[in-house]
Amino acid sequence: MSVDTPDGAVATRRPGPGPDDPAHPVRVVVWYRAPEGDDASVTAAYHRISEALAGTPGLTGNELLRSVTNKAAFAVMSHWESFEVFDRWERGPSHQEATAPLMPYLDRAPNRHFELYEVTAAY
């Protein structure tokens, strides 16, 4: 299933185990690039956003990931109870304001600054 997001990105949701289950978890990945010599700015913005989003219904966690080969490249992976819950939050009024601190660092170079993953297996 393809989904157009409010910022113009297209997210693809592939069928997996239990796709009809409304509680089927999804992961959202957003890519960022730190300014040269200022990796701390991305990390600081991530912590501000994570603190602000604590308690958001359906958001079960998130991770800040850093490239092993390119120290300026980051990704945030957020864990959501379901696509429906994520979609409701993303289309809601608090999404843009809550995520604003990281917006200047969005990495649009790979032409995919946003992607949605469905969990198909986990241990």
Describe the structure.
- The chain is of the alpha+beta class.
- It is built from three helices and six strands, in the order E-E-E-H-E-E-H-H-E.
- It has helices at residues 39-53, 83-91, 94-99; strands spanning 2-4, 10-12, 26-33, 59-66, 73-80, 114-118.
- The protein has a four-stranded antiparallel sheet. A two-stranded antiparallel sheet has the order 1-2.
- Strand 4 (59-66) and strand 5 form a beta hairpin.
- The radius of gyration is 14 Å and the shape is globular.
Estimated structural class: alpha+beta
Give the number of DSSP strands: 6
The end-to-end distance, rounded to whole angstroms, is 25 Å
Instruction: Provide the succession of SSEs.
Output: EEEHEEHHE
Query: Which sheet architecture does the biggest sheet show?
Result: 4 strands, antiparallel
Q: If you compute it from the alpha carbons, what radius of gyration comes out, rounded to the nearest whole angstrom? A: 14 Å
Mean pLDDT: 81
Strands of the widest sheet, in order across it, are 4-5-3-6
Shape: globular
Helix content: 10-25%
**SS field, number of helical segments:** 3
Strand percentage:
25-35%
Contiguous low-pLDDT stretches (5 residues minimum) are 8-18
Task: Name a few traits of the molecule.
123 residues, four-stranded antiparallel beta sheet, single chain, monooxygenase, 28% strand, alpha+beta, two-stranded antiparallel sheet, 3 helices
List the helices and strands and how they pair.
Blueprint: E1 2-4, E2 10-12, E3 26-33, H1 39-53, E4 59-66, E5 73-80, H2 83-91, H3 94-99, E6 114-118
Antiparallel strand pairs: 1-2, 3-5, 3-6, 4-5
